[in-house]
Amino acid sequence: MKLNAALIGSGNIGTDLMMKAFRSEWINPLWMVGIDPDSDGLSKAREHGMKTTHEGVDELLAYVEEDEIKIAFDATSAYVHAENSRKLQEKGVMVIDLTPAAIGPFCVPPVNLSEHVGKREMNVNMVTCGGQATIPMVAAVSRVQAVDYGEIVATVSSRSAGPGTRKNIDEFTRTTAGAVAVVGGAKKGKAIIILNPAEPPIIMRDTVHCLTADEPDQKAITRSVHEMITEVQKYVPGYTLKNGPVFDGKRVSIYLEVEGLGDYLPKYAGNLDIMTAAALRTADMFAEEIINGVITLEAVNA
Amino acid sequence: MPEEIDVDISGKKITLHDMCLRDGMHAKRHQITVEQMIKVATALDDAGVPLIEITHGDGLGGASINYGFPCNSDEEYLGAVIPLMKKAKISALLLPGIATVEHLNMAHDIGVHTIRIATHCTEADVSEQHINSARKLDMDTVGFLMMAHMTEPEALLEQAKLMESYGANCIYCTDSAGFMLPDDVTARIRVFRDELKPETEIGFHGHHNMAMGVANSLAAIEAGANRIDGSAAGLGAGAGNTPLEVFNSVLDRMGAETGVDVFKLMDVAEDIIVPMMDQPIRVDRDSLVMGYAGVYSSFLLHAKRAGEKHGVPSEKILVELGNMKTVGGQEDMIEDVALNMRKEMDEKSESVV
Known about the structure:
The structure holds 2 protein chains of 2 kinds.
Chain A: E1 3-8, H1 12-21, E2 27-33, H2 40-47, E3 51-53, H3 57-61, E4 69-74, H4 78-90, E5 94-97, H5 109-112, E6 123-125, H6 129-142, E7 147-157, H7 163-167, H8 169-182, E8 186-196, E9 204-212, H9 218-233, E10 238-248, E11 251-259, H10 270-291
Parallel strand pairs in A: 1-2, 1-4, 2-3, 4-5, 5-6, 7-8
Antiparallel strand pairs in A: 7-9, 9-11, 10-11
Chain B: E1 15-18, H1 23-27, H2 34-47, E2 51-53, H3 74-81, E3 89-94, H4 101-110, E4 114-120, H5 128-136, E5 140-146, H6 153-166, E6 170-174, H7 182-195, E7 201-205, H8 213-223, E8 227-230, H9 244-254, H10 262-276, H11 285-293, H12 299-310, H13 314-323, H14 332-352
Parallel strand pairs in B: 1-2, 1-8, 2-3, 3-4, 4-5, 5-6, 6-7, 7-8
Helix pairs in contact in B: 2-3, 2-10, 4-5, 6-7, 7-8, 9-10, 11-13, 12-13, 12-14, 13-14
């Protein structure tokens, strides 16, 4: 048995997520919702036999009961997410938010997915691609010893940054910085994003800097970082440690590369993969719980 | 017959914009004190420099491990200097992806007159939020296209038009790597002047890595620019910015009007800025490599530091960063490249043993 799901947003993220969702054991991607009838995402969805609309979320709402849609992924933008989420939750649909809106609690699977178990949350937020790529590393340091400050630099190929990300760049930096602290466990967080237009396109690069409160325990941190890399590789095989951890006084620096599976955009766009793979892993966990009767979804007036 | 170009700039009004308290922060590892800021800014004001930029080298919110932590916050620097200005206006730089609209609002509230929203030369659409907001606040709003040598004039123009459409009243062609030669500048400024709205001002920001700061700035004016960045004594990233006291003197000889006192600005450069320098600001091998290979000037001191720490020649790090087509802000790649080179050197020496 699988739960029926809707994908809202037919851009890069939504389309990549669709390709991955076809392989899920727990999720059946049934609907793709867009606003542009000519979008590549919608046409790919139709090719795969999904139901589609270019009339936005309102059109989908009419089919929620009939098609037994239990989970929706929102890959639109931070600006429209709140309204989408409210409407879907009223119908008892759980929302996995891939925008930086951050209405619901943050979820970075290898760090805090287990904390979400059994909580009946109707909206969880996947932070940002940069957050998914780096917060596991901040957490890998902060689980060893206190981190006063965590800073991440995410560099993505210009080709992999769609108009939503570009218009929302402040939301990216704000939301990521917030989650570096809240989920990563740093006292204070900062995030920087850079777009690089080089051809051939660069693979996503991420750098994580932490300032530990006391002298860093180099051995324990190095071990913890390697263990966390293995955890992330379970759902993003192309997640690699390029250099580090480098120690310089209380600074700990970790240099990462994230190569994607190339489901929709080519492999350089690891930023899409880590976001969609994390969202799907989260949805799978909730779907499994729902199917096994651990949690039941209820309509909420958000 | 080649097209006749009117190169007579006598009587032309040029706005000089001093960078030593922002770009100069790179050369000072962001360690300029509030007292030094006050001293420099009041002296520049007294010399008649109309516009002075103050922030962390990487703009508002640049304080970070990646770029360096400054002595004081942007807010402290700006708050200390702005009330003391008699005529000069203060500008601030903002890079979307590093700073947000909240930083912009802070700058506006504290009295910043000119905000410069900077993006890589092909990524202007990340500036929409910030340029829109600045326009609404009725600030002098500048779109600042960095590393402009990395794209062709026509493509650069498309990006300039985006920024203009968001509300920028001035567009800069920014030679962040000090790579451009005068013809490169002429070609870019000329399409700006021909195709942007007549009321849109055009600016040029140079670096002196190929010693072209003055020549390039002059080419920019001849092609239609009216705002020129420079820095007293050149204090700035790489081999520094266009030395402003030199450029002002050149313009004076050519009859252009800057309103800046030639001798007073020389005094600021010689008596205040030069003694502040931690190292001579000159075209050394590393900065020449940056100009030659087209590398972001702010990488200079980071590369020297990483080179020293990991025992790798800094000029080789810089060349590799150029090969990788890194853009402004990718300072994190400097240590990464140094570590890769270290590994390679260690592997080679092992195989010899």
